[in-house]
Amino acid sequence: MLEWNRGRGGAEVHALRLREGLMAAGDEVRLLVSDVGSAGDGFADYVSFGTEKQLPLSVLQIANPLAAATVRRAVREFRPEVAWVNMFALQLSPSAIFALGDVPKVLFVSDYKVICPVSTKLLPNGKNCEVRAGVACLRSGCLSLPHWLRDQLAMP
User: Fold this and answer.
1) Which of 19, 88, 101, 150 is a good FRET partner for 95, with 20 to 30 A between their CA atoms?
2) Facing residues of 46 across strands?
3) Angle at 94 between CA 93 and CA 100, to 5 degrees
């Protein structure tokens, strides 16, 4: 499960190579992506709703019920032994992770979004941020109050 960006970056290439390697080893593999970007370049078995429009995206980052429904359908149909998860925080939301239920999960982190709301771990002055996300993001000027409040709702 991952969000598939426009074009094919490192996370997308890694996902395809991992999928190819697992399939070559005899494993059954299914790919679930959001429909933002190129929706998996035709490789996806399951495609979930996402958006690039700012207002609905702000809400869906808290909880994307359509992504959760797609994940639950994939789990019902495919019954995975393990779920490999990457880049879920922008489109799929934490609700997609929770929708996996008791399926064991491997979280592969290829960007900082899950630990930094602006994804960079950089402060507005360009220095490295060395504190845990939370009220520090508001105090340092990384986030506006509405953005910070919204992200508090998305924190598991």
Assistant:
1) 19
2) 32
3) 110
Domain ranges of the chain: 1-111, 117-156
Give the pLDDT confidence of 87-110 residue by residue, as tens digits: 888 788 889 999 999 999 998 877
Q: What is the pLDDT of residues 98-147, one digit of tens each?
A: 999 999 999 887 777 777 888 888 899 999 999 988 899 989 999 888 88
Domain 1-111: which topology? Rossmann fold (3.40.50)
For position 6, what pLDDT does the model report? 63
Which residue's structure tokens are 């979280």? Answer: 107
